[in-house]
Amino acid sequence: MRIVVVGAVLAALALLPVAAGCGGESELEEARAVLNDARDAYEAEAESGRDFSDGPCIANPLPDREDWVVVVVREPRDQDRSAADRCSAYRDGTAEHFVELDEFGHVIRAQ
Q: 29-61: buried (b, 16+ CB within 10 Å) or exposed (e) per residue?
C-alpha cells in the first residue's frame, strides 16, 4: 500500500504546473509545499470529524496559496463535472489549480 501512495505522490508532483521562481521556491519545493498544505487541510478536517463520503471541497482556497483549492474525490466519480468545481474559488476563477484527494487523504491528482 505504501508503494502505491508514494507512486501517486510522485506522479502528482510531476503534474503540478507551478511557475518557477514564485516566492523564491523551486518548482519541486513549491509542489511539495502545495501537497503538504493539502494534506494538512485534510488532516484538520479529519480531526474535526468531517465526513468525506460526499466529496467535499476542504480548502477553498488553501491558506497562503490562494491559487489552489483542495477537494476530496468520492467513488464513483461524478463524471458530469470537475471535482474542483465543488470549490467556489475554482469555479469563479480565483483559484486556477487544484489537488484531488481520496477520502483517506491520498493524492489522486494535482494540476
A: ebbebbbebbbebbeebeeeeeebeebbbbbbb
Residue 14 CB neighbour total at 10 angstroms: 10
> Which residues are within 8 A (CB) of 45 and not within 5 positions of it... i.e. 6 or more apart?
52, 56, 58
pLDDT tens, the chain, 111 aa long: 444 444 455 455 555 544 444 555 699 999 999 999 999 999 999 999 999 988 899 999 999 999 999 999 976 666 656 788 889 999 999 999 999 999 999 999 999
8: helix, coil or strand? helix
Are 59 and 30 in contact by the 8 Å Cβ rule? The answer is: no
Which pTM value belongs to this model?
Answer: 0.75
Q: What is the DSSP letter of 10?
A: H
